[in-house]
Specification:
The structure is a homodimer. By secondary structure, chain A is α+β, with helices and mostly antiparallel strands. The first copy, chain A, is built from 9 helices and 9 strands. Chain A has helices at about 10-20, 30-35, 40-55, 70-75, 80-100, 140-145, 150-160, 175-185, 230-245; strands spanning about 25, 55-60, 65, 100-110, 110-120, 135, 190, 200-205, 215-220. In chain A, the strands form 2 sheets. A 6-stranded antiparallel beta sheet of chain A has the order 6-5-4-9-8-7. In chain A, β4 (about 100-110) and β5 form a beta hairpin. The radius of gyration of chain A is 20 Å and the shape is globular. At the A-B interface, α1, α3, α4 and α5 of A face α1, α3, α4 and α5 of B. Chains A, B: InterPro entries: GAF-like_dom_sf, HTH_MetabolicPath_Reg, Tscrpt_reg_IclR_C, Tscrpt_reg_IclR_N, WH-like_DNA-bd_sf, WH_DNA-bd_sf. Chains A, B: This is IclR family transcriptional regulator. Chains A, B: Keywords: DNA-binding, Transcription, Transcription regulation.
Amino acid sequence: MDAQPGRSVTSKVLALLDAFTPASPALTLSELARRAELPLPTASRRVAELVAWGALERGDDGRYRIGLRLWEVGSLAPRGLGLRELALPTMEDLYEVTHENVQLAVRQDVELVFIERIAGRHAVPVLTRVGGRFALHATGVGLVLLAYAPAEVQEQVLAAPLERYTPLTITDPGRLRRGLAEVRRTGYAVSDRQVTMDALSVAAPICGPEGAVVAAISLVVAQHRADPVALAPLVQAAGRTISRSLGTPYGLPRSAG
Amino acid sequence: MDAQPGRSVTSKVLALLDAFTPASPALTLSELARRAELPLPTASRRVAELVAWGALERGDDGRYRIGLRLWEVGSLAPRGLGLRELALPTMEDLYEVTHENVQLAVRQDVELVFIERIAGRHAVPVLTRVGGRFALHATGVGLVLLAYAPAEVQEQVLAAPLERYTPLTITDPGRLRRGLAEVRRTGYAVSDRQVTMDALSVAAPICGPEGAVVAAISLVVAQHRADPVALAPLVQAAGRTISRSLGTPYGLPRSAG
């Protein structure tokens, strides 16, 4: 049943796309209808239109998946593949000189989205997935993105419960607030065993042409052999190189905090 | 004006997404309305809904661009990022041992879409862009994808004018047909200066679990130092490695030609 009968057709179509998640990338028609809160005949009609256009593809198993055409249109997002293409040479350089994990992320509302990741084969395992989301308060890239986010975003994150991933995750709002000030003071963030007990990440901001922080880059290394003070300049230099390729005239980010 | 007043709302929403191309990734509202063939008030309403969801983002310049949320949903396409994630380690190995350009592509209707590319910094320049399209009849990956495409796709391509990129592009349908038979016989394709006069590519198929060819991988090298017969086994081995990671039980693709 349509739980919100006043919804526009556009919102119903988008609700069908929302039904797909990294954990459920393949859905039957009835699963789709249920997740989008649409009556089956309505869902069936919209899904057929989405398949005809290529936004969805129907597999031999009868399940629907996100179609290549949607990936193709999505690849035009400047904050997705556009940023990735500009950042990749610098990320590869950072990988070549460290052989550690290199990550690139942007903020979407009160979470981060991983745009690219170079996973060191012999480096500490990382759980991140390109296109995947994560909370802002625990990872190095998240702390950078939060430190330079608009004040209302920071307040929203600080007001909500802060999920604990390890005993070292900062879940006290006051401590987190002081940590963010420190990130803005030093220009880099360190997440020391705050996501997993074996990893430490060092992250730095990437600025757009207007000087605002638009993304963050990090190195994720095995905690036991990590020296954040030695890694920070390396990551900061990479962040500045990418900022320059984005056309930023600023050396340092303008704080929004 | 709405050129097709009988169009469904879904198709109007999708027409707004269709308006964005690699050549025009940022559009004003009136450009969007014109390209989608929608009256301005209709376009304005739909665009506002797409912005609210995150499918589009409005820049400081007032132009609309594809939003990160659409990239995020698009990243769930198995034939896009899913394939790329499985293929990347093998593509990186191929790059490490050759330092040449490595490309990954899938077929979408009668064209190919580049899913990933590792560009050798000192290798011959390639024009391809991840998410970009190209004709099937000229590149190595295109010839592989066409050789194993369903017969109706082959006939459609052979019946249409075949664009000439260089004096060596095969534009004669009979010659192309014989070339495709040769690709199926040998299990690899060679495009020798058929796209640009300085490049040669060698491509091989990637098979899905059912044995059908689902993608193609290629090495693109400077033509003057290329030895296709030496490169072919390398590319074919990479194609088989990726096929295995896709779960294919077949050693060789089943021909659809």
